[in-house]
């Protein structure tokens, strides 16, 4: 993998919207956002356009995230919080023991997946986020109890995201099995798996390290809300 290819990970949302996910992009002259029906994330290469771009995009959604460098904020939004994240990339997959059946989720699971993600990790996931990639889950007691899937997608990378387990089913190794399974599926597509995880979430970081991921940088997710 070339240095130029790895450099794209410094601005992963921008390159996702410029490459594999270009069909989801709203482009404001050097500032790109996902269609907010799918994902309220944006990034930029043109700092001078960020103020007007955020102002326009804020008319489409009550809150948004700008990933990477700090933008010039608009008058109709305010910074709500910053989330420092570890960006991790797979070195060599170290597979766990699998003791649960993992299925590929279909449209019939989309509402149940939405409810599970919002129970465990509210604020990021939309119903149509399901259409951004493949999602996998574990069913127990006739309900979806754990899931993960693909979010940001570039020519060379796919981000594994929405790693969630219902509170009643934690500490059973379900997340580890799902992340490993999804990692293998990304590799089968001849792409490199990446992850973003809040830097304070040391438990998740350790889990990913045990599966063969390493942190390559810190990257900031800035959350803005309309005023």
Overview of the molecule:
The longest helix is centred in the last third of the chain and has 15 residues, at 174-188. This protein is α+β, with helices and mostly antiparallel strands and 227 residues long. Helix content is 25%, strand content 35%. The mean pLDDT is 96. α5 (174-188) links the parallel β9 and β10.
In short:
This protein has 2 domains: about 5-85, no CATH class; about 85-220, Aminopeptidase (3-Layer(aba) Sandwich).
**Low-pLDDT windows of residues:** none
Mean pLDDT, nearest integer?
96
Helix and strand element order: HHEEEHEEEHEEEHEHE
Can you identify the CATH class of the largest domain? Alpha Beta
In the CATH hierarchy, the third-tier topology of the largest domain is known as Aminopeptidase
Overall SS class: alpha+beta
How many E-type strands? Answer: 11
Number of domains: 2
Q: How are the strands ordered across the major sheet?
A: 1-2-3-4-11-5-10-9-8-7-6
């Amino acid at each position: 993998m070339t240095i130029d290819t790895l450099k794209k990970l410094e601005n992963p949302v921008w390159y996702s919207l410029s490459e594999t996910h270009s069909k989801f992009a709203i482009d404001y002259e050097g500032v790109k956002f996902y269609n907010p029906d799918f994902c309220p994330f944006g990034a930029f290469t043109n700092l001078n356009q960020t103020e007007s771009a955020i102002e326009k995009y804020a008319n489409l959604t009550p809150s948004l995230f700008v990933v990477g460098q700090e933008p010039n904020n608009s008058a109709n939004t305010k910074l709500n919080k910053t989330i420092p994240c570890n960006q991790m990339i797979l070195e060599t997959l170290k597979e766990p023991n699998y003791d649960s059946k993992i299925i590929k989720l279909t449209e019939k699971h989309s509402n149940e997946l939405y409810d599970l993600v919002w129970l465990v990790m509210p604020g990021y996931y939309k119903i149509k986020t399901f259409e951004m990639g493949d999602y996998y889950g574990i069913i127990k007691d006739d309900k979806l109890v754990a899931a993960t899937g693909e979010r940001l997608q570039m020519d060379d990378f796919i981000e594994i995201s929405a790693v969630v387990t219902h509170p009643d089913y934690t500490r059973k190794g379900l997340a580890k099995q799902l992340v490993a399974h999804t990692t293998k599926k990304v590799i089968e597509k001849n792409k490199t798996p990446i992850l973003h995880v809040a830097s304070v979430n040391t438990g998740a970081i350790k889990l990913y390290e045990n599966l063969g991921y390493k942190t390559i940088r810190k990257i900031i997710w800035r959350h803005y809300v309309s005023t």
